[in-house]
Amino acid sequence: MEEQFHLYSNTEILFNGKKEPPIINAIAILQRDMEKILKPFSQPAGSIMIEPLDSGLPDESWRIIVTTDQMLLQYCGTLGCVYALLFISGHFLHVTPFWFWNDQQCTMKDTIPVPAGVYHSPEYAVRFRGWFINDEVLIDHWKTGQDEEHWRMVFEALLRCGGNLTIPGTDSNSRKYRDLAAAMGLWITHHHAEPLGAEMFSRSYPDKIPSYTLNKKLFEDLWEQAVIEQKDNRVIWNIGFRGQGDRPFWDDDPECAAAEQRGKRINAVIAKQWEIIRRYVQKPVCCINIYGEMAELYRGGLLDIPSGIIKIWADNGYGRMVSRRQGNSNPRIYSLPDPRDKGSHGIYYHCSFHDLQASNHLTMSPNTAEFMTAELDMALAAGADECWIVNCGSVKPHVHSLDLLRALWQAGNINVYEWRKCYAQTYYGEDRKEDVAALFAEYASCTARYGIHEDDHAGEQLWHHPVRELLCGMMQRRLDAGLESLFWLTGNVPCAEQAAALKNIAAETLPRWEVFCKKCLSLRPSLPENSRQLFTDSLLLHGLLHLHGAAGTKAFCESFLAGISGDTVSAFRFAAEAHVHYKASVTLLEEAEHGQWTGYYDGDCLTDVRLTFSCLDALLSYFRVVGDGPSFHTWEKDFLVPESERNVALLNCKQRALTNEELAGKLPPLYSQTNKNYLTISDLSFSEIKN
User: Fold this and answer.
1) Contact 528/564 with Cβ under 8 angstroms?
2) Crossing angle, helix 465-475 and helix 495-523, to 10 degrees?
């Protein structure tokens, strides 16, 4: 019989060493998990003995020696102990990396047997592995009275994924939560717009111009203060210089108009920041982001970066390792190190992105796992293996992609097909793992293609930001020429052509989303009961947000085109159809809030589904005023009243005017069934599938 150690609820955790805060926290996590999974047991049980090793293991490494009466946990470095304790929780208690974010339900057991033997820590393909909790508005507005606990769950999930580094939030959040992150054992680094993690200049000095030329001493004082505040933590110091609000600094400094001047300014700033860091920190670890306009300056040979600094290269927000599109400028500069560029390199990679154009914030990545894996394999081959910083947004919508990055930063290369099945089995059950995995693969193939490049696939923001741009252009009477804000999508063409182009994109993807959502609805009843809600909150929710988004966009564009041609009645009717789909999108988010997720989507202010719905409400009224006012009975007479009654006077005195929604609901179909050239999709929402 195989020798085993048995974990019981009263298995003692003994520690022979200095209990640092990260170790205390990790022990508490393991004890919590044991209490959650193991039934009370009163008989004597074995122990978990923890002891540090001064040599014999690399930093952050561990081994667990299991005998019949003891688990001996040996580690090197604080994180080595943390990872080992979380390994026991994950590998033996089967607490998953995203147990909190994917609502894992645990079945209590009397005991858990652990086969005797020696267990070793994995070797990671990437040295520093972390998340940037960025655009975290959903977490920020999550009003459940737990606040710091939400952030604790973010950092715990990161540690369970083998992460050791974080940018703990955007702007003020990064300072608010960095002590918590450090207390859990994580290294800290900084947003590329916040060098050294310093307070933003314009917040500290709102009455002064954020120009280094004019206020050099004030900038340097902020940097020095930031170093003093963090010097006792483990920090990868982000050096460099961007302008306030995450934009080029020369927007506020006209003396740096030429590229050479910009390079000289950044070099001077880097030298000063490097001097400040070394004044307070021995053997500092530093990085610099080759991001946005920095990529062009670096490629032009204008930046003088000290040796040993980790150069962080960034994808474009859509998964391709090229420079990002900013407004209508999209140079797509290759964003990985040249083979001749020796030194340390890393990447900044987006699972979540926000650009007010076509990115994904509420929904998972629009790219396939195969595409993402190929890009990241290429990054590793180029030597970008020192540091990976992953934009995780507000975590929950992006868990699928974050798990892929977890697998990649550990192994370096994976079989995507097998990984996808493993993910589906872990969170959705063994029985239908193949079907769930196939739907995760199909999801990305449904996303809208809006450009010529492989990464030009859209997240849900495509169904909101361009629509609001066109809607405002119409109501603000800015239609003399094409809207410049949409040139990235359509080129410099008149507004009518812009709307037609957006309509065609929506129409092209719409049938795929309809098929996808019907497959999800068909599969859902056969899933295990404890994973059915998760399936609804992830794949189905994301598919339906795209379905209604595309349908609403198509109907809106029809409304726009009818409106500018003078057909106000058709414009109103198409706007009413768009209104229905955007209302369904609002309902989807509301009905995805249940249990601990109550209020989670209240913070949707970046895609802002509710704002689009509100704008469509205004558009309906706009067309009603233009075409049906001032009596607001004209359309009712023309379309709903029998011909014999149309000329009867005093109709206004007999009944109130119909509301916009009442009128839209009573008007005849836009097209007959025999001559239908507009795809109408049933109002699928969670209300259909609650039972």
Assistant:
1) no
2) 140
190: its two tokens: 């900084």
Helices (H) and strands (E) in the chain, counts: 23, 15
Sorting pLDDT into bands at 50, 70 and 90, what band is 674?
very low
Burial of 459 (0-12, 13-18, 19+ CB in 10 A): buried
Domains along the sequence of the chain with CATH: 4-120 (3.30.379.10), 128-429 (3.20.20.520), 447-685 (no CATH)
- pTM score of the predicted model: 0.94
Residue whose C-alpha is closest to residue 336's, from 350, 325, 322: 322
- Residues 6 or more apart from 215 whose CB is under 8 A from it? 201, 205, 208, 209
| Direct distance between the N- and C-terminal alpha carbons of the chain, in angstroms, rounded to an integer | 47
The angle formed by the CA atoms of residues 516, 519 and 525, to the nearest 5 degrees, is 140
Least confident of 189-198, 248-257, 470-479: 248-257
CB atoms within 10 A of CB 146: 12
Q: Is 70 exceeded by the pLDDT of residue 653? A: no
- CA–CA–CA angle 376, 380, 383 (5° rounding): 140
Let me know: does 686 contact 658? Beta carbons within 8 Å: no
Rounded to whole angstroms, the Cα distance separating 351 from 114 reads 36
| Angle value at C-alpha 254, between 252 and 257, nearest 5 degrees | 115
For residue 311, what are the β-bridge partners? 288, 345
Question: Quick one: which H or E segment has residue 120?
Answer: strand 117-120
Distances 473 to 167, 327, 467, 483 between C-alpha atoms, Å: 38, 17, 10, 7
Q: State how far the alpha carbon of 113 is from the alpha carbons of 31, 46, 435, in Å.
A: 17, 12, 31
More confident residue, 481 or 167: 167
Q: Distance from CA of residue 324 to its chain's centroid? A: 16
For residues 430 and 574, give the distance between their C-alpha atoms in angstroms, rounded to a whole number: 45
Contact in structure between 190 and 167 (CB atoms under 8 Å): yes
What's phi and psi for 117, nearest 5 deg? 150, -170
Question: Which residue do the tokens 């930093």 mark?
Answer: 59
Distance of CA 354 to the CA centre of its chain: 8
For residue 400, how far is the Cα from the chain centroid? 11
Q: Which two tokens stand for residue 654?
A: 């007999």
